[in-house]
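Entry, Tuesday afternoon. Goal for today is a structural model of the target with zinc ion bound, before we commit to ordering more compound. Inputs were pasted exactly as handed over by J.K., no edits. I checked the ligand SMILES twice against the vendor sheet because last time a stereocentre got dropped in transcription.
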Amino acid sequence: MVNVTGGCHCGNIRYEIAGEPIVHALCHCTDCRRHAGAPMVGWTMYPQDSLTVTKGTPKLYTSSEHGRRQFCADCGTGLFYINENILPGIVDIQSATYDDPDAVPPVAHIQTAERLHWMEHAHELPSFERYPPQT
Ligand SMILES: [Zn+2]
Ligand SMILES: [Zn+2]
């Protein structure tokens, strides 16, 4: 039994999760990318009753016909995704909002049909612990 806590950047929304995630996937779809403003989004999937919002009320955004995204209206952090049409009873949680984002490693990339072409080789780029040396 893994118990996870997390929240948005400003701290106005806090949540707890009880139980094991069904899966943790890195999503490359266009909707995730554009909503997050990031090349991909990590999602852990749980039964909806595993999730308890312990502080605040996330704002609901209708991101597609059946897609419902919840985020903090104060700081903008994306938090939850529900699609009762495709995944009834399921909530996806943005795994980077965990207090310990290393706690549950991802197991798959999904929606790679919409992946940015350069993301396929992003792990091969030169890496710097902080920033590149100044010349
Ligand atoms: Zn916030
Ligand atoms: Zn997505």
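The two ends are 50 Å apart (CA to CA).
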